[in-house]
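Researcher: Batch entry, complex prediction.
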Amino acid sequence: MSADALLRTWTGPARRRQSTGDALWLAPALLVLAALGWRLGGTAAALGLLATGLAGGAWLVRRRLQRLDERWLVRRFNALRPDLEDSAALLFSAPDRLNPLERLQRARIEQRLGAGRPEDLAADWRRGPLLALWGAALIAAALLMLWPSRAGRPVHLAPSAEHLPVIPGVPRLVAQNLRVVPPAYTGLPARDQGGLDARVPVGSRLEWTLRFAPQPGQPRLGLLAGPPLPLRRDGQDWMAARQVDAAFLYRVDPADPRAPLAPLHRIDVIPDAPPQVRVISPAASLTLVRPGQRAWGPVFAATDDYGVAAQARLRVTLAVGEGENVTFSEREIALTGSGPARDRRFAPTLDFARLGFAAGGDLVVQLIVRDTRSPGPQETRGPSLVLRWPAPKAPESAGLEGMVNTTLPAYFRSQRQIILDAEALLRQKRALPAERFAGRSAAIGDDQAILRGRYSQFLGGEEETAPEHAEGDGHDHSGGLPPARPAGFGAPEDVLAEFGHPHDDAAASSLDPATRAILKNAVDEMWEAERLLKQGQPAAALPPAYRALRFIKQVQQATRVFLSRVGQERPPIDPARRLTGKRDGLASRALPVAPVDSGDGEIAAAWRALGDGPGAIRGAIDLAGVERWLAGNRDRLADPLALAAALDAVRADPACARCRAVLRGQLWLALARPPAGLAPRPRPDAAGQRYLRLIGGRAP
Amino acid sequence: MMSALSTLSAERIVAAVLGLAVLLGWVRLALWQRGAGAAGAAHWRLAALAALQPLVAGALFLTLFPPAWQHAADELVVATAGTPRRAAFATRGRLVALPEAPRLDRAEAVPDLATALRRHPATRRLVVLGQGLAPRDLDSARGLPIVHTSPAEPPGIVALALPAPVAAGAAFSVAGRVAPAAGARVELVDPAGRVTDRQPVAADGTFRLSGTTRAAGTARFALRLRQPGGRLQEEADVPVLAVAAAKPRLLILAGAPGPEIKFLRRWASDAGFAVQTQIAAGGGIALGDAPIALTLSTLNGYAAAIVDERAWAGLGTGRSTLLEAVRGGMGLVLRSDGDEGTRAWWRGFGLAPAGRGGVVPVVLPEVAVDTPEALALARTRRGIGTRDVPEGSDLDDPVLPDVTRLGGKWSGVDVVPFLADAGGNPLAAWRPLGTGRVAAFAVPDSYPLALSGRADLFADWWSRLLGAVARPADGPALIAGPFWAGERAVLCGPAAAGPVVQPDGTVTTLVRDRGADGCAGFWSTRAGWHQAGTGGAAQVFYVHPAEAIPALRAGRDRTATLQLARGAGAAPQGRGTDSQPGSPWPWFGLWLAGCGALWLLERSTRGRGGMRAGPVA
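Model: Structure tokens for the complex:
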């Protein structure tokens, strides 16, 4: 017998037993898998999962079968057959490579081999665990398939409560069910309710199941504003479904002319609120760095009605530097929150060294969170928290008259820009034609002139022209951003520079004499730089420009500007016009005034018509005007649907006193309060008038 | 006659039987005493037993035939609403019960007092039990001496001042008094069912609530009285009539342009006035509308004129024309703007506030918005927002502007101060002049109100100011009540002429009573707004449900009855008596007590002699 035949003969039963056993072990798992698939995704999913499971199982069985090879057989022989004397390996060795002793031994065991049966080598069944597994799998599969499903559970209809009169032969709603399926992201379960009024999360799907008796032709849901929703027949019942994005009123309409008008039902929506961000620590929005602090860990809490996304962003704004050298950098850090979905905590740790945060800087953080709404998650930005690292030295300000501005007006900084521009121009000199080069140099010179003009203001306006009030020079009274970034970010004292400017007659009065002298030097240097720039020599202009910058820095180190207190001042009298007797251009003129019409006349008229006083209309009332008004003023009302419903009720039954009272109450809520006019006093009767005339009255 | 005979015979028979029984008892007692010998009862015991026999017999007789009450023959006891049972029981005399009275045992039910007086023509004196006579019976009782001891005030709303007609959009107030006051709270509910004002009741039970109106027409607010625990004790309707005059013409004369004139003009044109403004800018230059001539015929078309001090100073002969127009019915409002010369003229007219002068701040009503509840209350007074002013946009942070007035007080004889600020200081005063009126407004600048979100208060001030003086005009007038369904309402004047339209549209024709100054009586059958008269003379009145505000109604009846009693003088002494069947119950009690005493005495061993047992019958 060849080795192959031997192997086949002796491993055959074991292979069959093992493959059967494996199949028996895998089958329950496949069964549970298929049941799970059926439960979650229906038959197709079950079949798909089953096929995948079968393929995987087959691969597994095959792989396990491969282990039943020659080595396995030898080990098995040696373990189970003492009569083979641990020499089973000889059976599979090539005879020509054996020594005589081995050959002899091989012959002996070949003879003994027949004493056993190949079936003995097969593994035992292990029935107990297998049966337990099958039992558990069957129970699990049964549970999975038979557990009552929410979505698929049968609809139980509640008896109708519309209290409509029963007219023989006229279809009438007898039972109903309203299923509310909130959007998946809310995590709310679907619910069934017997009533037809509901308050549902926005985006919910509503499924009506209605039963009529007798069966109507083509019933529908009549929406008060909008096209009707047709019902489709499903056995005994009629069904309709709709996605709800806004509140609406509807009624069940059997579409039979003989049927009485059914009452209105109302669907309200609960809007999805955007998430809320709260700061848990620190307590104040401005925190100062403690000595030795190396990191900062603000803690935020974000809450939402359905859930806050675990991923949030932290916007970190870093302001580093002082005076004119403040640089901003902004970055966003992704954060992961902890805690339950409706109340998440975000606790980032900001390492100063990694962020580059240093003394004299500000670190501003803002948490940006989103909720789980889909589509379109709502984003909320939390409050900004500022961490300030105070500069080592603070300017002193004691014993000074008037307000002290500890920072310079922000426009002191653009001398550096002029230098940078000039240097950039020099670098481009080769690429530019001479004419263009000169033009741009002159333009920089113009900038320098404007800047010099501004500094001259502080010296009492010693310039030949009046360059102030150029566009964008920081002296615009209105609109837009503050003229420039404040010198010290967020410096509380910098209000003036941020929102205004010193307004006294001579700006120079706000500088002390030493500063004034330095500033004068700076202006002189600016003159020089300006002259050279305008002559097209930016390279020559650079040294004076640098000198001007240095002087400005010296002024900046003084960091004190005096602002005189100003009171309310009246505009000066124009002596040119005063007491001249000239009245040119002066004449009587009409000042027209037009009354404002609130446009609520329709509501007021209906209010009177529905009452029981003068102007009341007891019969049918024309409410078209109110409807028109309602269509145009829906957003002015807190609850326009209630007014629409009340209108509908009165239109359906003009004689219903209760409906009229309800509508009148709703109209009161829709009435604007006009400015109080005149309630004239009652006219005295004839005797009273005669009396008053007789006593006359005396005027001084 | 037959019945009288039979009654007499029955009495006689019973008396005879009882007398015989007493005799038998005595005989038995005597026999037993003699038979007992030395062991007989003590003398006192015997005497007591003997004495009790006729007493019990007599009591039994009187129980069966109670003696008639003897009382003044000309006195009639009238039970009205809220008559206590005890008081009715204790009265002697003929008792009649009016329909409002509770069920009483021996009272004779009568539909009204006049019927009772017809049935008992000898009546010369009335004793009124309970809350008092209803208006229906007051006239019948007039002339008769009345004794009325009023019971305690019933709990609830005992006084209520319902609002007079107000301009559409204006604020109104409801005042009143409740009893008992401790811990009670009152609420004003608007026609939509929202609470629009909520106040605790003062220690003396008074309260004052305010609300705002919207469009012209009738509205029904409700006043709720809540007990200390918050339980609703009573709810009363508060009828409010909002009126809007049809384009009244208003003349504004200003001595100089200014913000006050600007906002006054804006308010007046928005509030439905046809405004004619003339602003002098000096040097013969006038701004505003096209100038008109100040003649009497022109001015007669105007409802009112507002003139400031500087304009008044520059009017010259125009002044007398204006005053002549006022005598013809026009209203004139003098506005202070600080011109001292004119102030002197005012003073002569009695319209300048006298006393401690200077300028004092006006106390403005605060709008509390610090709690969600207060904010909700404030919102209910606003009406819906407009495109320009969305709802509640000005309520977030209410600012009270600085508004000042001229200090001092008005003290003239025919000068009526009005328009009180939140501190109770009047801001204006008016005096009649012919058929018109002249008012002075002591607030130089009221426009800051319009600028700081209190345009409603600005409008309210000027509306009331002009409403007090402007030329009277036809319009729906309110007949002051209160009236109750099922009661007679007296309508006088033009209202008595026309038919009455009931809330359900039923029309009732009135019949004037020439004997009562041409007034007419109207018996309303349902609660709600009623309209009396037609066209321009139409008047409206509100009828409360029959069971509404019972304490107020009882108070009204009591006051009226007491006034009637005071006015009728002393009651004459009764002449002669009358009899009336008496009650058997006191006699029955006496009989029961006598029997009990007899039984006790018979059972008792006291006063028995020897060891022997009691008598054997």
